[in-house]
Amino acid sequence: MRCILFAREVTPAIKSNPMNITHASTKADIIDASCEVIDTQAEQINDLRERQLILWTIVGILTVLLAFGA
Q1: Domain range summary for the chain, segments of one domain joined by +
Q2: By percentage, how much of the chain surpasses pLDDT 90?
């Protein structure tokens, strides 16, 4: 599994359960589980950045409307 940071991917409707890491887990299992977490966090960060952009756009529009007394 390859970690993909800041890439826009279509997320499945049903996400798989995260892997449980134990003392018996192999290095590959630990890396795979961490990549899943990193990918999920990257998707959440991208979604939040998009929401932030939308909110700043709304703030800008409302500021302009308020400045011109509309």
Answers
A1: 27-70
A2: 61
